[in-house]
Write a structure and sequence with these properties.
Shape: globular
Distance between the termini: 53 Å
Strand content: 5-15%
Radius of gyration: 23 Å
Number of strands: 14
Largest sheet: 7 strands, mixed
Strand order of the largest sheet: 8-5-4-9-10-14-13
Number of helices: 21
Helix content: 40-55%
């Protein structure tokens, strides 16, 4: 009789084979074939906004490969690899020195001597860095000591929004390094406040009191890099799939709460011209959003892509001229958004905040909703063992659970690492479906009214019920209505 563990291995091999073939089919469906590991140009699918089928295949493929290694490799080898990984440090060198920008001028490759001179680094150390990254398909050594860009290293060009996101991540290893110290520090250990995050602890060790918060430290250039980095995060997560899989045709008005510079509101305005859109964020961000926005272009196969380097006036002038878009400043911890809109959309907002502040944000929205209004929370969702039954399953969420015999969360740790990122930076967190349901549940305090004091709001729930979920692989869209 075949041993159960052997059955699991065979099941994983089957998943690897089938999911790889599904991914290949998605690439071939574009008419451009399957990309090569050392390809020096983007595949059209790399820049598309609707890659949901590909991402579902890759989710299975990555998870099964990781789990297969976990089962078959010696445990000491696997555990050592948890910490013996410096791809992040090598990537940071490439990002900071803009190596990909230099190599972009030399598609056939550039000798390491000239490359190191161009970026003002030592040639021997530069070659060592590039060889580490080349093992992962990021840069390639076309002949001895001659390097060129690849499809992966093109992401590291300074004109790419993901480059900006990696810039933002430069300091995170420093925050991670003090994690254990914060967990045993009397002042920090039990707190979930922003000012008691590992970031604040690390800065305090350097003699910096972060009294005014991260945003106040940034000059205009740094804010631009941050906002472009958030666009890059949209691309990383495939968040633009919401443009294709939420029924926007049934919606008339949208408020983008915490809109940034328009990662979602501009594509919405362009693709769905019937929508009336309100952008709401802090006053300085609203000013910035009028000056920096996506440039929308099309690939040869007709896929829409977004390049975030142009102004609203150039990119969606018809929306401005027609009065279909408005810009309204807000502090969502203290104020409610505009009244009576169909959809209140929050992308990567709630994960920045602990539960108390998240309830305040949602409560402020609840106060201005009409009976048929909806709240869309677009975030990563953690999948855990022993969760209760799902709610609102539909054709886009029915397969969000990993198949039998595979690890939880499809064996992928990406979402859990993003949870750590939010912890390091702001004492925020990613949440499970049940945790989101609890955030929005009906009031539990008799006599609860909208104008109760802040202390009561902290103990009360919001008055929303989760009715629908859309699994977009990297993220989910959770739809709430008034309970």
């Amino acid at each position: 009789m075949t041993e159960l563990n052997e059955v699991k291995v065979e099941a994983l091999l089957g998943i690897i084979n089938s999911s790889a073939r599904e991914a290949m089919a998605e690439y071939k469906n574009t008419g451009h074939g399957v990309p090569g590991a050392d390809s020096s140009t983007f595949h059209p699918l790399d820049l598309a906004t609707d890659t949901l089928a590909l991402r579902k295949a890759i989710r299975l493929l990555e998870g099964a490969c990781d789990q297969l290694n976990t089962i078959l490799a010696p445990p000491q080898y696997t555990v050592f690899n948890f910490v013996n990984n410096y791809d992040w440090a090598c990537t940071d060198v490439a990002v900071q020195s803009r190596i990909a920008d230099v190599l972009d001028k030399y598609p056939e490759g550039l000798g390491v001597d000239a490359l190191a001179d161009a970026v003002n680094l030592d040639k021997i150390k530069t070659a060592r860095i590039l060889r580490v990254l080349a093992l992962r398909g990021c840069f390639k050594e076309v002949k001895r000591d001659v390097f060129a860009n690849t499809r992966l290293s093109l992401i590291l060009k300074s004109t790419n929004n993901v480059w900006c996101h990696l810039q933002h991540h430069q300091q995170f290893p420093k925050y991670a390094a003090v994690l254990y110290e914060t967990m045993i520090d009397q002042e920090f250990a039990k707190s979930d406040k922003v000012e008691k995050a590992p970031r604040a602890f690390a800065l305090r060790k350097e003699g910096i009191n972060d009294l005014n918060g991260f945003w106040s430290e940034l000059d205009d250039e740094a804010r631009d890099i941050f906002q472009r980095g958030m666009m890059g995060y949209t691309e990383i997560q495939g968040s633009s799939a919401v443009l294709h899989y939420y029924p926007w045709d049934n919606v008339s008005s949208v408020v983008d709460v915490g809109s940034g510079i328009g990662a979602m509101s501009i594509p919405l305005a362009k693709i769905f011209p019937h929508l009336r859109i309100t952008n709401q964020d802090l006053p300085e961000t609203i000013v910035q959003s009028r000056n920096v926005s996506p440039d929308i272009r099309s690939t040869p196969n007709g896929q829409v892509i977004f390049i975030f380097d142009q102004a609203w006036e150039k990119n969606a002038p018809e929306a401005l001229l027609d009065g279909r878009v408005e810009f309204v400043p807000i502090n969502f911890l203290e104020e409610s958004p505009v009244v009576g809109k169909d959809v209140y959309y929050l992308r990567n907002i709630v994960h920045d905040w602990p539960d108390d502040e998240s309830r305040v944000i949602l409560h402020n929205i609840r106060k201005v909703m009409e009976p048929n209004s909806r709240v869309l929370i677009h975030e990563c969702v953690l999948l855990r063992t022993f969760e209760g039954p799902d709610v609102g399953a539909n054709e886009f969420s029915k397969d969000h659970k990993a198949p039998e015999l595979t690890l939880l969360n499809f064996g992928s740790h990406t979402t859990y690492h993003l949870d750590m990122t939010m912890w390091f930076f702001a004492n925020g967190k990613e949440r499970t479906l049940n945790e989101f349901k609890i955030l929005g549940q009906v009031p539990s305090i008799p006599g609860y009214v909208d104008d109760v004091c802040f202390v009561i709001i902290r103990r009360a729930s919001v008055g929303l019920v989760l009715t629908q979920i859309y699994d977009l692989v990297g993220t989910m869209v959770l739809e709430f209505k008034i309970a």
